[in-house]
Amino acid sequence: MLKRIRLLTTILVFVLLTATWTACNGDTTEDTDGSNGNDNDSNVDNSEAAISVGVVYDVTGKGDQSFNDAAAAGIERAENELNIEYTELTPNKDGSDRAELLQLAADSHDLVVAVGFLYEPFVVDAATENQDVQFGVVDTPMLDFESDPSGQPYGDNISGLVFTEHEGSFLVGAAAALKSQTGTIGFIGGVANAGGLIEKFQAGYEAGALAVDPEITIFANYITEAPDSTGWQAPDRAQEIALSMYENGADIIYHAAGGSGLGLFAAAKKHSETVGSKVWAIGVDSDQYHTVDPEVQDYVLTSMLKRVDVAIFELVKSTIEDNTEPGAITYDLAVEGVDYSTSGGFIDDIVEQLESLKAQIVAGDIDVPTVPNS
Amino acid sequence: MNSVRKYFKIIEKVRALPAWATWMMWATLGMLVLTLVQELSDTSQLTDVVSSQGMIRWSVPIMLAGLGGLFAERVGVINIGLEGIMILGTWFGAWGAVNYGPWAGMLIGILGGAVGGLIHAIATVSFGVDHIISGVAINLTAPGLTRYLSSHIFVNYDGGSISQSPRVGKVGDFTFPFLAGGNIGSWQTPDLLGWTADQNWFLISETTALLRGAGSMSIASIIAFALVPISVWILWRTRLGLRLRICGEHPLSGESQGINIYRYKYYGVLASGMLAGFGGAFIVTPELSGVYLEGQTQGRGFIGLGALIFGNWKPGGVMTGSLLFGYPFGLSLRDLDGVASRALMLVGVFALVGVTVWTLKKGRRTDAALAGVLSIAAAVWYSTSQTVPKWWISILPYVIVLLVLVFFSQKLRMPQANGSPYRKGGHSN
What we know:
The structure holds two protein chains of two kinds.
Chain A: H1 2-32, E1 52-56, H2 67-82, E2 85-89, H3 98-108, E3 111-115, H4 120-129, E4 134-138, E5 143-144, E6 152-153, E7 158-163, H5 165-179, E8 184-192, H6 197-212, E9 217-225, H7 235-247, E10 252-256, H8 261-275, E11 280-285, H9 288-291, E12 300-306, H10 308-320, E13 327-331, E14 338-340, H11 351-363
Parallel strand pairs in A: 1-2, 1-3, 3-4, 4-7, 7-13, 8-9, 8-10, 10-11, 11-12
Antiparallel strand pairs in A: 5-6, 12-14
Helix pairs in contact in A: 2-10, 3-4, 5-6, 5-11, 7-8
Chain B: H1 2-16, H2 19-41, H3 49-74, H4 82-100, H5 102-126, H6 131-152, E1 173-175, E2 183-184, E3 187-188, H7 192-197, H8 204-214, E4 216-218, H9 219-237, H10 239-249, H11 251-256, H12 261-284, H13 300-310, H14 315-334, H15 339-361, H16 365-384, H17 390-408
Antiparallel strand pairs in B: 1-4, 2-3
């Protein structure tokens, strides 16, 4: 018996190894065809590239149909328009190899783009060690507030790309209030107390909704609290929260919860089908009408666009031109760093009102808060 | 003096009741506490139909993992690798569902789990590796393997990535006729439970509302719940079950009866892997996630092991444990203003008071004092706080298991030879 099992195991291991080897081989051939989406995918051009860029994604990686995909769109646009070459890297599940990935990217590239504020301390270390490489981090100003309370850049080769998410959220909040039939709307955040980032979304959303309808009821809930960051990867929990909000009368819900947002779209479809009247979801970061599964597409009212793609494209461009500013580079409504989407045509009737609100924010007539009231 | 004697007589009568009657009694008592707390707290969420549906959704994966643990430990193999096997179940479940439809996904997820179980069986049964080491190895390898597979397969799909699959399709729901108003042919039967739940009859409406939640659920959930009586039947009513259990209780005496212990241990651990794989495949169905996403099992395999200990290595107990763990989790997510979660704390206070009385009656003074102090602490916390922190709900299952281990450990009995190595002919390694 035992002998037979040993023999079987040996055969099994052999078969597995062969299969793995063939699989690897198969993929290498694909790679030279220029197929996309490998873990470590170099898009090498024949002509001499202006610069080479290393993109290090956040834990969820490319294909999250949200934040990381927006970054990918930016670097792809830069490749098409600016004659660069780039490599993509994704950290492991718990993100424990962030420092190593940054060093790896810095070794062979002129510019390293780190997608996500969690990279901040690692980029500071890597940039100090690689003075000849330019670093850009999305979602954090990369300013040192410890040595100087007003904030100084960590180094000449470090920039932070920040967005006025509260302004974009204000506009989709206004859209929700204008479109709501029940006078009740909802907000689902991924992780609370993570440096106040997601609270910015909530504050803008609530302010926008209240500006249109001071009587409106707003449910706000977070999936987890920092340091428990599983809230970005829990579509099941997001779905449960969203269902409860819909059942309690909300008909439009906005999420700022990364990968968990998929649960919100699923809940919108589920609830609409059970009850028979349509409820909506609002996407975030990318234009989620185009990124979600076609099955739930019709429930995406609009999306708060955070133009990570624009920011990364501009960063690449300024690096080529050698005039990158160290420290925080802010993308706001005025430069279309944040915006709302009209895909699907569901909010065509209120675009005029939204545009006028937008103009008031840009002109400084409306001051959008960054901290929620409650 | 007379009254005391009378009291003991009642106790003896209760003892003499058949098992199902005691269960009913405890369930009614639990419902009574729940209803009273609900009345006190001014919420209706504790016994809502939708809360009940949430409870079922969140319990099923825990229960399947628990049943997986049950089959492994009943044949004497500790399976701490349930979490890793569940991860395999999520990946293969999603892969199968995306390519061949939701039902095939379920099946392929189960097969993926079986592979995990097979590896654990080869390591522990054939090679005599320490059960914990093999289990931890599976837990560490599974996420790496699935990520590797994703990087070669899911990235090529539309909407897939290194950490995510495209959307997974629905398995389909079933609504029981008469009880919950399901259809027979094209005729819609009356919704008896739903009607009773709407009547506002004290205790009865609350109970039927919770039952109504179970009246309409995913077919996968129905299969999962059906596996509980099936497990009881297999393990305690068939020859196969007797042979499986002897592997966990006293393999050498089984061997002396001519039973091939190795083979039955393999059966048990394989079944364990298949059940945990089913649990993983369930997590990716739209009932919960509707997508494979890295890290989405979120420790449910370990909570399943908790349900196994809570349930005293019996299928019915595993089910009770997972419902008990799934209930606060689903409820806290559905709870928008924090009232229901806080009310749940009051239920906990009552439970601890119950434990105090019970230990006092048994004459276990130290335990009674400990339970008393805990119940007072819980009561103080309840009265001084307005909301329950989110992390508290996440650790609640572990807290319950710890409390069960502290206060009821004398009642727990795991399979006698659980975790000890077995070699044919009684040679030790």
